[in-house]
Amino acid sequence: MKRNSLLILLLSILMVLSPALCAFAESETIDNTGNDDGQQEAVVNLIEEDAPATVEEPVAEEETEKSSEEEAAPEEVVQEEPSVLRSGAGWSDDGNYYYDENGDPLKGWQEIDGARYFFNENTGLKKTGWLKQVDEEGVVYWYFLGEDGRLVTNYWASDSKGLCWIGPDGYMIEQTKWIKVGNDWYYIEKGYQVRNKWKKDSKGWCYLGSDGLMVTNDWAPDSKGWCWIGSDGYMVEQNKWLKIGDYWYYIEKGYRVENTWKKDSKGWCYLGGDGRMVTNDWAPDSKGWCWIGPNGYMVETSGWKEIDGDWYYLEKGYRAQDRWLKDSTGWCHVGEDGRMDKNEQIPDSKGWCWVDENGYQVVDQWVVERGNYYYYVDSSGYQVENKKKYYIGAKNGYLAGYYNFDEDGRCIDENGRYTNPPRKTN
Fold it and tell me: How many beta carbons lie within 10 A of that of residue 80, not counting itself?
């Protein structure tokens, strides 16, 4: 009996060392213990308990690794715990979590100090920005939470498409309709604010400006021109004069008239490039430039008119330009811009003439140009040119004598240098 027990122990050791020896030992043990059922049962039980640890070990290692991965997966989903935990109700120090009296973070929709917040259902992290939720019937609601996490109401929120209106319940109004915000009207299409666009309803045409506001008492553009929007927010589709601020405008079928003459019972008036009725200014037509008086009507008379210190001559309302004119004082010249020339050298087909500081032609006298050059205008009104030893009597303070002039009419000495005529002495 003692011998058999020793043999069983030895076989057990060998089975651990080699599966082949174990199989051999098992055969031997059964043969040597055929008369002892208790000892045989003990050997069989020993093999059944130890064998899986050796035969199935690679599989067991794979299962262990896989199990480890499955346990770690939820940690990737669960957000990192807040850096500062609290005991009792209140906000975390970073303001991203709110704890109940047990120190647990709140989750889902919560009302705190009269404001509504949404906290992540898994982590308790406070939500900001857009939040999508679907109700039991599959209806989608878009909520918007501000930077502080509060649910906003009656507010314009932005996304990549534009501005959306958040209604009193905190979600986007995904409809097409007019909405009144304070004293202002806006129009939304599928929840988005309409801008820079015309809209028509039963009352007429209205315009939504660059800020989305329904325009009132202002001009609005379309492909045809500028339209006036009245105080009710609708286009004034009439033909009439409008006084806006200090200026008069004329609209035809609602459109502003520009760069156009209009005539009424008072006379002709002109609407400029900005549509304003021109006053105290020049206005063009196919014949020339006309002067518009302070009342906004063309001055249809002839005569001299002083404008901003300069003199112009009107002929039946039109500005005289680049020509000689004669009045009771003498000859004068107006330039291309219609202004009377003064202290200027004026050419014509016969030669060069001069006009004095009053704008009238110089005759039979000396002319000084910028204090440097001297010219002489003879009795015909033209400057003397290319002459030598030309006699001139005593004129406007200069002595009589013989003088030389170059081809440009400048007074020169015998050597061709510019010189001044000698003045009279007292």
Answer: 8
Q: Is 214 exposed, middle or buried (0-12, 13-18, 19+ CB in 10 A)?
A: buried
Q: In 70-114, where do the E strands start and end? A: 90-91, 98-99, 108-112
Quickly count: other Cβ atoms within 10 Å of residue 335's Cβ: 13
Distance (Å, rounded) from C-alpha 325 to C-alpha 360? 10
CA-CA distance, 73 to 95, in Å (whole number)? 28
Q: Which residue has the tokens 């009996």?
A: 1
Three-state DSSP class for 65?
helix
- The dihedral through the CA atoms of 146, 150, 155, 160 has a sign that is positive
Calpha distance 191→219 (Å, rounded): 27
What are 276-304's pLDDT values in tens digits? 999 999 999 999 999 999 999 999 999 99
pLDDT tens, residue by residue, 101-120: 999 999 999 999 999 999 99
Contacts of 290 (CB under 8 A, 6+ apart): 268, 270, 282, 283, 284, 298, 299, 317, 318, 319
DSSP 322: S
